[in-house]
Amino acid sequence: MNFTPEQLTEALAARQVSSECARCSTPEAFDVVEGVVYVEVKGGQNIPHAALSCRRCGHLELHALSALGLDS
Questions:
Q1: How far is it, in rounded angstroms, from Cα 71 to Cα 29?
Q2: What is the pTM of this model?
Q3: What phi and psi, each to the nearest 5 degrees, are found at residue 48?
Q4: What is d(CA 22, CA 54) in angstroms, rounded to the nearest whole number?
């Protein structure tokens, strides 16, 4: 599962996702964390996510790659 930071940024922008941090309100605050985070759902299914980290406060956001069309 490969995606670039630019692909993630474009997919979020196309869905009008705010780039302001939900915790500290810093605009344009997020960096894409390299790699994929797998969230295990009860029953054993693992859902791949992209992670974003706020440069100011460290808040993490996860976005399901399948919902963004980046899961292939």
A1: 24
A2: 0.87
A3: -75, 135
A4: 9
